Amino acid sequence: MPAGPDGEREALAALFGPNALVVDRRPIGGGCISAAQVLTLSGGERVFLKGNSARIDGLFRREAEGLSALAAAKGLRVPRVLALRSEATAQLILLEYIEAGAKGADFWETFGSGLAELHRASSPKGFGFESDNYLGSTEQKNAWCSDWIEFFGDRRLRFQAELAVRRGGADRSLAEGVEAVIRRLPELLDRPSRSSLLHGDLWSGNFMADERGNPVLIDPAVYYGHREADLAMSELFGGFDARFYAAYRAAWPLEPGYRERRDLYNLYHLLNHLNLFGRGYLPQITEIVRRFGG
User: Any idea where the domains of the chain sit in the sequence?
Assistant: First the structure.
């Protein structure tokens, strides 16, 4: 059986005792950043392991912080963080293993109302998070800001646009177009009275159904922001079941005009996809920039 990443043996020994041995190692596909496996131990325990090289500094520590924040909000289930290890050439995170199941009859209603409950968690510090983290493998800037519009313009849109120029994915004219959008944000976006705890990367690949058919959030890019940003991301690649949105709105109605703001919030994620995956996202980005840049 292939060896696990550096630090695995020590992490398992600390959790399950020095005699814990890995008797089965099942790779899990789908990740583009880290290698994931389900480990079965000699005592029958199962844990979920993610590991990669240390090239993305603190990736799993930031993930653990996000999962802990989501767990504390208690709106939806997330995997428990069991252990972190970081070596010179590798890093790993051990998580509670959650058996994937079929969606229950009320899966989408539970998911929508649970997300609304999660979004009610707020921070007196405003918008941001205790540390910068990652959206995929892109650094996500989270320095606290008391004003949502300033935060979204600077930490989200400007950061991604400048990154695209530096990496060669876009020319200077795109960054200038994004700056035009940023100048109009005060008339385009609402200023919420309070921040909401966000998953931050809420698409169909970042949730699952557990063994009881209930929703589980995974792979977050957590920060405190405007709750509309999470909902907008959920609609970027086709959207969730209509029952999800109906349950969310029943638990916490949206302010008028969300549909007009949705694509503006998703400009952040499209810029990130440009930076991660290439210029195929430029047509969508350009259309949004033209529409909102005036």
Answer: 8-96, 107-293
φ, ψ dihedrals at 97, nearest 5° = -85, 125
The residue with tokens 């990130």 is 272
Residues linked to residue 138 through DSSP beta bridges, in sequence order: 135
Average pLDDT for 137-165:
98
What's the DSSP call for residue 78? -
Res. 2: pLDDT tops 50: no
Superfamily for 8-96? Phosphorylase Kinase; domain 1 (3.30.200.20)
Q: Six-digit token pair at 216?
A: 């589980």
Q: What are the residues whose beta carbons fall under 8 Å from the beta carbon of 291, sequence distance 6 or more? A: 263
Q: Over the chain, what is the mean pLDDT?
A: 95
Question: Distance between CA 33 and CA 139 in Å, rounded?
Answer: 13
Positions marked catalytic: 201
The span from the first CA to the last CA of the chain, in angstroms, equals 59
Which residues are CB-neighbours of 166 under 8 A, at least 6 positions away? none
- Determine whether domain 107-293 maps to CATH 3.90.1150.10: no
Cβ 111 vs Cβ 243: under 8 Å:
no
Identify residue 222 by its one-letter amino acid code.
Answer: V
